[in-house]
Amino acid sequence: MTIVDDMARRSIDLAESRTRSIASGMVGLAVVGVALVSALITFLVLEGLTSINPGDSVYGTFTVFDTLLLVNGVTVLFLLAIIGREVWQLVQARRRGRAGSRLHVQIVGLFSIIAALPAILIAVVASISLDRGLDRFFSLSPRAVIENSLNVTEAYLGEQMQTIGGDVAAMGNDISRTKPFIEQNPEAMRQLLTAQASLRRLSSAMLIDSNEKVIDKADIRVPSEFVFIAPDRQRLASTSETEPTMMLARNYVAAMIKLHGFEDTYLFVTRILDPLVVANLRQTQASIREYADNETRRLNVQIAFRAVGRDLNIEISGRNNLGRPDQTAYWCDQIIREVEADPDGRQQNGERDDRV
Asked: Do 314 and 260 share a domain, yes or no?
């Protein structure tokens, strides 16, 4: 075989190698695109930026969260397979003693280290920073502040309920003692209810029967935005003459007791709560729910950020170097041509004196 034939054969091999490299690069680019899209979707879903709930079932016990993990895992395997294939080709060329193969490995390895090392360092630092930031957010101090605020509000509500329970019991006793006088003077009941309610700073006081019908009530003006709902029949049936029943509504507390000596008559009283306390209670409860929800989503946040970082790192360290060997191969092929044209025959088994 002449030198011309050998050069022609090598040119054909080089062209075929470039064609395979381009095809491999296109496949790798498509896989990288799918990986980045899956990472972005994972991030948006796990961060709650979409209407999709990660806990929703897709098939049986297989949830959206499991599906996202599976898709991301498959894309990572494809990326690693592409990179592994390129590494295998480099190793095989080195074993066969192909001219310039050692230099090819050195160039690819050098560029891989240059690209991968910063990406790895960024991933490690970002992961540590994320974990420490979440640890501070979910530490005992913020939790204690929120829980203490709720405890103070609940203590206020508990005190209000105990107070109104004592008020309704005392009013019931007063009304029972004045029953003979009330029977002779029907208007005295309303006057007594009004006086007792004003004295005890109650927002309303009324007498009702077991059918929720209002028998009589105190003359007290109440803002129109406050609507007091009478207890249902089940609550009335469970109320006794000795133990008052307390209730907590949206913006008021209420209590009722069955009147001793009266037939089918219950005393029902209410007291409006401080609007600031009610607003603080709602805000605190919402904060606790949000805090608990964020705590349960902590793992999702970590997975979301790491999924994006993982795919970007593989993209940077893999596709720019091992996944794109055509550029590196082009440089090496130019050197190989010089090696093949070396009249002294210094190249053997893929070795040269060149240093990278």
From this structure: no
